[in-house]
Design goal:
The protein has 25 helices and eight strands. The protein is of the alpha+beta class and 739 residues long. Strands 1, 2, 3, 4, 5, 6, 7 and 8 form an eight-stranded antiparallel β-sheet that branches. Helix 6 packs antiparallel against helix 19. The radius of gyration is 29 Å and the shape is globular. 55% of the residues are buried.
């Protein structure tokens, strides 16, 4: 996973620059006021600080759509250039107006980085460490603030500090970021697949994962192009087939059985649909106690049911078949295919009648990339042409994307990707089609559940395993009905249909699953902004000065301006260990658990701050209590409510609309930031410090309730599976409302 880690670290430098800029302007504005004589013009002073917020807000309105059109990497390169140019212009700034323009450019760079870095990391990281890597922007942002405060503090000790130099230094790390984005960061493989650039996507994935075989994940990325519709949950018990069973035995009489094929000749598995054995299935049908009472969204219970049974392993390899490797490992002698882009390959595959509608009978569950058996429809049709949809199920197994054998269809977090072949009688005879299945292991090994599966032709071998699995079943993007009427983008068996690669449209946002995800994403961004972080940051220097830190520093000969900078540096330094803890816990405890456990500490800290400002217990006691409360608030905020909203927003949307949706969430973030920043001084004058912190405590309480009711746990799940769950959850919520 080292490739994905290094790429995430490089991308997170964009957030380091944001933190650097935030801290630098906070120190530099003290000296800007003196040079331009802004003491009597607080509006201009506020505008110098706020111009980057305005720029970030403006660029965010269009960044999502552009990112879906041009890609993630070009916008990160543009972001680094904007940082660099703004640093040079701030270094030059002969007057306030040029400075304001430079701050606007800086805001554009900040807006692009803050919006797209979480998306980029989510799309390149493996599911098992996605939370850890997506907490890196929070860590680098705070690290950038600390480094910048230290730099500005050092400059403030000079005889005549230069604010231009303070602001202009930004161009140096910006240049490093530009080099990294231009020469080191690859394009997001999910975006490449969405544009039909399969060869490039495969090469990027190989680099990120550090292995040649990325076949399973490539297929997953293609399947993720569809906005989830008509998804259902099924349950299977999976066990080994009788090894003496005749390969040509007709299964048409065993309608309740689904056949899985193993990696070696003669090795196969039987899956039998069951009811009531799977935690996911039970919750899907009946809901949890909390969701039935109306307290919790059915979606939250559905996600929770997965994590109750999540396997301990973090391996990307299959966990469904631990002794036999992946059910999709194959060999074969099909000709090598060296080129996979649409420019270099003939478009084939539209000659096969496909029908994935309802009313069909399920005879086989298998990867379309392999088969040692033919179904009755293929016997009627005869040998298929090379490259057609039917060839993926005929004769010898297919080779991998560059000729290497496909060795795994494990997609992370205990999930496997498969396709279910369906046949039914049509007006022109038998018609067939595929349905996509995301399988998740839920059961325990063998003997405890062996009686639940009947193996044709005899009993299962004594050392066999019988595994319980939940399955998300929906229409595929890889083998869709549209292929009847159009050419696929590249070879039919591995490329999406043209309709799947089209740009997102606004109507996609009204898909039930997407709409449900937007409620979660926008809601948590609004609540984060109004939870009090800006108010506590604003008030921290005053609290620490009351605690005697300012007096101590003045005794050392440090001016009040320098002392405030040093205090801010100490505050940000306290954040770094807490963020490091959050990075460790993000994929262990999970996002939802971190929020539910850290928000109560925020509420308690704010209540103590309110009491400290209302009750006079002596200056020393009050200052000590307030200092401890502020430190607790900071440490627990950056463990939960700081990084989690951005992580969630980068995970919960389908690939086709991810850029658009993340821009909506980011726009909410920036607008909330502007409102809170500019209303804080007004509220301090009108309702006082106790009133402001009391209001923040109420918002934190509302946030906890919102998280408990609406925010699901997404740790360790592939992004595409998360989208499917939102589609299922939205459907269940609608059904519950109707009933």
């Amino acid at each position: 996973m080292s490739g994905a880690v290094l790429v995430a670290v490089a991308a997170a430098v964009g957030n380091l620059l944001q933190g650097w800029d935030n801290a630098t302007i906070a120190g530099a504005v003290l000296y800007i006021k003196r040079e331009f004589k802004l003491e009597s013009q607080p509006t201009v002073e506020g505008l110098i600080v706020a111009m980057s917020l305005i720029g970030a807000t403006l660029i965010t309105t269009c960044s999502g759509a552009i990112a879906d059109w041009l890609g993630r990497r070009p916008l990160l390169i543009i972001s680094s250039l904007l940082y660099f140019v703004s640093g040079l212009v701030m270094l030059w700034s002969p007057n306030v107006y040029v400075l304001l323009f430079a701050r606007l450019l800086d805001g554009f760079g900040i807006g692009l980085a803050v919006t797209l870095v979480p998306v980029y990391i989510s799309e390149t990281a493996p599911p098992e460490i996605r939370g850890l890597l997506n907490t890196l922007p929070q860590f680098t942002g705070s690290g950038g603030m600390f480094l910048s405060y230290c730099m500005v503090f050092g400059m403030s000790l000079m005889q005549s500090p230069s604010w231009r130099l303070m602001l202009g230094v930004l161009s140096i790390p910006s240049l490093v970021y530009f080099v990294l984005t231009l020469f080191f960061l690859p394009e997001s493989p999910r975006w490449l697949v969405s544009k039909g650039r399969m060869l490039e996507a495969k090469q990027v994935l190989q680099r990120l994962r550090g292995r040649e075989d990325v076949s399973g994940e490539m297929a997953l990325l293609v399947e993720g192009l569809g906005v989830g519709t008509d998804t259902s949950i099924e349950e299977y018990i999976i066990g080994p087939d009788n090894e003496l069973m005749d390969d040509d035995q007709d299964l048409s009489g065993k309608k309740d059985q689904i056949k899985l094929y193993g990696p070696e000749e003669g090795l196969s598995w039987i899956a039998r649909p069951v009811t009531g054995q799977s935690t996911v299935g039970l919750v899907s049908r009946h809901g949890s106690m909390a969701s039935r009472s109306g307290l919790v969204d059915p979606l939250v219970s559905l996600f929770g049911s997965v994590h109750e049974k999540l396997p301990d392993t973090g391996s990307m390899r299959s966990t469904l078949f631990p002794h036999f490797g992946s059910m999709f490992s194959v060999g074969g002698n099909q000709p090598r295919q060296e080129e996979w882009d649409e420019e270099s390959l003939a478009r084939e595959g539209d000659e096969y009648a496909s029908d994935t509608g309802g009313g069909d009978s399920d005879d086989n569950l298998q990867s379309p990339l392999i088969s040692r058996h033919t179904t009755s429809i293929e016997k009627d049709l005869g040998p298929p042409p090379h490259g057609s949809l039917s060839s993926m199920r005929h004769g010898s197994a297919m080779q991998g994307y560059a000729g290497e054998p496909v060795s795994s269809m494990g997609i992370g977090g205990g999930w496997q990707l498969a396709w279910k072949w369906s046949e039914r009688e049509g007006k022109d005879g038998k018609e067939g089609g595929f349905k996509r299945i995301y399988l998740h292991q839920e059961g325990v090994p063998g003997s405890q559940r062996g009686s639940l599966v009947s193996i044709p032709g005899g009993d299962a071998p004594t050392d066999s395993e019988v595994i319980q699995a939940a399955a998300l079943v929906s229409q595929p993007a890889l083998y869709s009905a549209q292929l009847m009427n159009q050419h696929p983008v590249g070879p039919a068996m591995v490329h999406p249909a043209e309709i799947a690669t089209k740009a997102p449209i606004w109507s996609d946002l009204f898909e039930p699953g997407v709409k449900h995800a937007l409620v979660v994403g926008v809601g948590i961004q609004i609540l984060q902004q109004f939870s009090g972080i800006n108010g506590v940051l604003y008030y921290t220097p005053q609290i620490l000065e009351q605690a005697g830190v300012g007096v101590l520093l003045s005794n050392l000969g440090i001016s009040s301006a320098s002392a405030s900078l040093l205090i801010s540096a100490m505050t940000t330094l306290l954040m770094l260990p807490s963020i490091a803890v959050a990075m460790r816990l993000m994929d262990v405890s999970g996002r939802r658990t971190l929020l539910l456990s850290t928000i109560p500490v925020l509420i308690l800290s704010l209540i103590i701050l309110v009491l400290g400002s209302l009750v006079d217990m002596g200056s020393v006691v009050n200052a000590s209590i307030s200092t401890i409360s502020v430190i607790l608030y900071f440490c627990f905020f950056v463990m939960g409510f700081g990084p989690v909203p951005n992580i969630l927003c980068a995970e919960i949307f389908p690939t086709r609309v991810r850029g658009l949706c993340i821009a909506i969430c980011a726009l909410t973030f920036w607008i909330g930031d502007i409102i809170v920043t500019y209303t804080l001084p007004v509220m301090l004058k009108s309702i006082g410090l106790a009133g402001v912190f009391g209001m923040y405590a109420v918002v934190c309480l509302i946030s906890w309730v919102f998280v408990y009711m609406k925010v699901p746990e997404t740790k360790g799940m592939p992004l595409e599976v998360i989208s499917e769950f939102f589609a299922v959850g939205a459907k269940q919520a609608a059904d519950a409302k109707n009933n």
